[in-house]
Each structure stands twice: as structure tokens, then as C-alpha cells.
Amino acid sequence: MTILVKKFSELTIKELYCILQLRSEVFVVEQDCVYQDIDFKDQKALHVLGYKNEVLIAYTRIFKPGDYFKNSSIGRVVVKDSYRKLNYGHQIMNASLQTIKEYFKVDPITISAQKYLKNFYEFHNFYQVGEPYLEDGIPHIRMDRD
Asked: What is the Cα 35 distance to its own chain's centre?
């Protein structure tokens, strides 16, 4: 998988369209969740794009401390359905963790994780903080990484 990291202002129209399409495909259609994906936070984020054969198959957006949580944050973690069993989720997470270190020079990270993905994030040294909560009708948990 080829990884690109871009600020919002560096994204091409095609890249932005592919990001929004992938997020909608998974978070709105596949998960049957009507929510406001376009939240005006993309402009503050760094975008981590994962390509296979020139197709966007994985994506995250990351925030510096204070822009989403007190700590740095990773959100909108998504992998195209047909690529999920091929380890690309772990690759995009590793790239996101490395990007936070390179760009923000910090270690603590906070995420709002879908509860069913707890083990996935624990593999990347995140741990649950507090009780589960509903976000857009889907059970989530706060997870931190020191």
C-alpha cells in the first residue's frame, strides 16, 4: 500500500471526492448510519491516504493536540470492505501513528473508537478509558495511548 499524507489545502478535488466516497460507503451505507460526516473538521486535519493500484482503499484523519481532544487524535479510520482481511487496517494505523510522531512530535493519543474494534486498537497499544457511549447511534469507547 502506498501512503500519502496531506493537509486539507493540498488535497486535489479527486482525492477529496475519493475520501468522501469511501467514508460514505462505509460509515453511512455499510453501517446504515445517517450522520453528518462533513463536519468542517477536515480543514484542521492531516489526511493519511492509503492507495493500492491507484485506488483509495484506506484512510484516516489526524489532529494535533487541542484540535479534537486534548491529545492528538486519529479519526475516520476506514478500509474498503474488500481489503479488510489483508492487513491494511493495521498498515494505515501504523502510518497514522508515525505521522503523529513526525508532524506533532507527541506520544499521547486519544480516539473515539467503535466498541466492536476495541481489540484492533488494543493491538496498537490503546486502552479503554471510561464507559461505552453512543455516538451517532453506534456504541463507542474512548481509548488512549501513552
From this structure: 16
